[in-house]
Task: structure prediction
Amino acid sequence: MWLPDLDSLLLALCGVSLGLTLLLLLLLRRRPLGATLALLLVAPLTGGVVFLSQDLLAYRNLAEEQRVATVFVAEDPAKGFLIHVNTDDQQLALDATMHGDEWRLDARILRWDAALGKLGLNNLVRLERLSSRYRDPADEAQQLRSVYPLQGGEWVDSWQLLRDQPFIWDWVEVDFGSGVYAPLVDGALYGVYLGRSGMFIKPENPIAINALQHW
Result:
């Protein structure tokens, strides 16, 4: 059974309510008493529907998540692991060799003020570093690691100039670093997502699901 999505349902309710209100306004001259009484009932309902729709969509915008990149892992007996990182905006595609137990992706996050978030303005992310990671801290200090600087992402370099302007901080809630990591398992495909609170990982295939469940 087909069910409408939230956007379509709310827009339809707003359209019907506004259309009914407009129709009653047009009927005021012909049937002033009946139209006035109907308006007294319909107008508050219309206002409530519009307000509720705006509020629900605003909270959805605040919680909405977007995929930033995908990470695919392939085992290479000679080199360890080969990892492919590709951003969803096609600005970055990187093939790299990983030494370790896990891969790690670090980024800089800019989160807009909640009022701008309600308008649908997404957080900004700049991917900065891809590196390997060992589960054992002793191995982390002694074993061979892999570190790659990243260029690309959705955050343009002009932010470095804008951040020195006092007015910009009236719109920015927080500017912070965020990192995610996951096990290096042959054939695993991970999605890196950006939400209101930062980055997080979702498995994109059964191998990645199994890797995260038995990590």
